[in-house]
Amino acid sequence: MSKPLRIGIVGIDHRHIYGMAAQMQAVGAELVCWWTEGTPETLEGFEKRFPNLPRMGCAQDVISRKDIDLILLSGIPSERADFAIAAMQAGKDVMSDKPGCTTLHQLNRVKDCVAQTGRIWSIDFSERFEVPAVTRAAELVADGAIGRVIQTIGIGPHRLNLNTRPDWFFDPVKFGGILTDIASHQIDQFLFFTGSQDAEVTDASTGNYGHPETPGLQDFGQIVLKSDNAEGYIRVDWFTPDALPTWGDGRLMLLGTEGTIELRKYVDVGGAPGGDHLFLVNGTRSERMDCKDAGLPYFARLAGDIAHRTETAMPQEHVFKTMELALKAQAMAENI
User: Fold this and answer.
1) What sign has the CA pseudo-torsion 175, 177, 182, 183?
2) How many of the other CB atoms lie within 10 Å of CB of 332?
3) pLDDT value at position 335?
């Protein structure tokens, strides 16, 4: 019987760490220890979920431990690349919260480190990997239910919760910008569902339309993508209204040559309860599917990749390309 995967955590500044850690536990991994700087707003929730996990004195105390296989990163976005490089140089694989880096220079350093060390640098794109409806959509597309996917429309509205946000959230250098941050989710989904190995950002823009009191905030962003075989449109924002019963009405629409799929990931404002709603229309079917039991295979696949040095969870080049396009879109938008 093989030994369980052992995990250390560096940085808990974003709530995504809750899902990253819990989902790896669910596939049999063991949490060993953690560290974070100071007392982020997420601290109480983290300690409540993982009450017996020892906190180390510094990041290096986690990264240098020889009994750890995988490092989870969810600290301040601009710091994640340096921690990832340190972890890989110490012989660890890495799962980062998105964005995995905030500049093209950081991305190139990560690429070099992966090439030199042979370690895995993965990003938990939670809007794909932690949404059962996306799992079911992937199965339907693979089975040819809508033919070849020729366009995606991905929207990622979020609730701002302004009073709970840390100072770094309003500093574009530290959080990377709205396209680097949120829109990396939708870029990942565009590349995945269209089978695109590369793409061009043909248009990108950002703005602060509703929050003049926080000039560093970008509360709206959009991207237009084009690959050899498909096109995509992305819209992300911080304008989720207070009456919505969840943090955002995230949706994904897939146009195929033989049908369409729409995902209402977290809520159906049409009235159906819960989340993970999938609407399929093709030549023989027009139906809504409840996908809550479709599973989340990324985490077990990543554990297998770490054990066997494979790329079943997500190809490494896909991770690189997703972040490259997000960073290029952000740079283009800032220049307009």
Assistant:
1) negative
2) 17
3) 55
What does the alpha-carbon distance between residue 268 and residue 249 come to, in Å, rounded to a whole number?
8
Which ranges of 50-118 does DSSP label H, i.e. alpha helix? 59-63, 77-89, 104-117
Structure tokens at 214: 């926080």
pTM for this entry: 0.97
- Any residues with CB less than 8 A from the CB of 101 and at least 6 apart, and which? 77, 80, 81, 84, 107, 110, 176, 323, 327
How do beta strands 70-74 and 93-97 pair?
Answer: parallel
Q: Does residue 168 sit in helix, strand or coil?
A: helix
pLDDT digits (tens, 9 = 90+) for 66-103: 999 999 999 999 999 999 999 999 999 999 999 999 99
Which residue in this structure is represented by tokens 């060390």?
117
61 neighbors 10 (Cβ within 8 angstroms): no
Kindly tell me the burial class for residue 207, based on how many C-beta atoms sit within 10 Å of its own C-beta (0-12, 13-18, 19 or more).
Answer: middle
Residues sharing a CB contact under 8 Å with residue 82, sequence separation 6 or more, in sequence order: 106
